[in-house]
């Protein structure tokens, strides 16, 4: 890509487990990028200045294209930086990679992992943080409710460790796809388990440890060693303040051409229709509004105006809702 730092600006905060998916990818690929650090709770004026209402972290700009949700970020990085990609190559490998993405994100592994946040964590004593997370998730974040959810969550996560130990890693392979280095499939599988392993007090060692699941914990250690080695060779990200990030993005070119709107899509929408797009699982109260300029089986794209410049907001199709805006009403299906 043209422009400084490959045109990439990543909005994130350091302990976001989802942001780590993209940070790991950029590190393993050695792709130069810029970052704009964000607060862990709302508001986030740096993103508001871009005209982005989407509240989840991370958000990634490549040129004037803004990508919301890590699933679409990783796909676009593979497409836009095709030299030495991390994606699977065979049909069978692609199926495993996609299954692992669905398993950890859409099938509930991370939801259960998030319910293992220890009640001793200092942030849970911060009313601003707990209120923010209740707005984000739509569920209670009081300590009593977290403690009540913990046994079921632990059972689900232990089942996840067992699945990895007794199937994918059971034959002693180093990496998920039997490659000589970690691939996108490893990122898709490992991130909730690595996050929990590094979160003090999240995993009770009498139930989940190196003793019960030696292959999984060895894989986590290998992955972190590979990351450290890659980080030593990768360019150090450029740190941008919010105003500088906005100006860099607004003065850039688009990273990709228009997607086009599939007239055969079940929603039957037309190019240029004014719509709202928002996630259906978390952060559901925060809607982005713009003209529909892209729609297919995998992606929806909105055109918005910010400081007189067009930006394009990209979302995955799965897990997001599209509502048509009609005159005289807020929104309707």
Account of the protein in words:
The protein is of the alpha/beta class and 333 residues long. The model has no long low-confidence stretch (mean pLDDT 95). The protein has helices at 17-29, 45-48, 70-80, 91-106, 109-114, 127-137, 143-168, 184-197, 214-233, 242-250, and strands at residues 8-12, 34-37, 59-62, 65-68, 238-239, 260-261, 274-279, 288-295, 299-306, 309-316, 320-324. The chain has 2 domains: 4-83 and 237-324, 3-Layer(aba) Sandwich (Glutaredoxin); 91-233, Up-down Bundle (Glutathione S-transferase Yfyf (Class Pi), Chain A, domain 2). α1 (17-29) packs across α9 (214-233). Strands 1, 2, 3, 4, 5, 6, 7, 8, 9, 10 and 11 form an 11-stranded mixed beta sheet that branches. The longest helix is centred in the middle third of the chain and has 26 residues, at 143-168. It contains 10 helices and 11 strands.
Write the topology of this structure.
Blueprint lengths: L7 E5 L4 H13 L4 E4 L7 H4 L10 E4 L2 E4 L1 H11 L10 H16 L2 H6 L12 H11 L5 H26 L15 H14 L16 H20 L4 E2 L2 H9 L9 E2 L12 E6 L8 E8 L3 E8 L2 E8 L3 E5 L9
Parallel strand pairs: 1-2, 2-5, 4-10, 6-8
Antiparallel strand pairs: 1-3, 3-4, 7-8, 7-11, 8-9, 9-10
In total, how many domains does the architecture comprise? 2
Over all CA atoms, what is the radius of gyration? Answer: 20 Å
H and E order: EHEHEEHHHHHHHEHEEEEEE
| The CATH class of the largest domain | Alpha Beta
Oligomer: single chain
Helix/strand-derived class? alpha/beta
- Largest β-sheet summary: 11 strands, mixed
Strand percentage lies at 15-25%
CATH topology of the largest domain: Glutaredoxin
Weakly predicted, low-confidence segments = none
**Helix proportion range:** 25-40%
N- to C-terminal separation?
Answer: 37 Å
Mean pLDDT: 95
Domain GST N-terminal: 6-85
Protein name: GST N-terminal domain-containing protein
InterPro entries: DUF7962, Glutathione-S-Trfase_C_sf, Glutathione_S-Trfase_N, Thioredoxin-like_sf
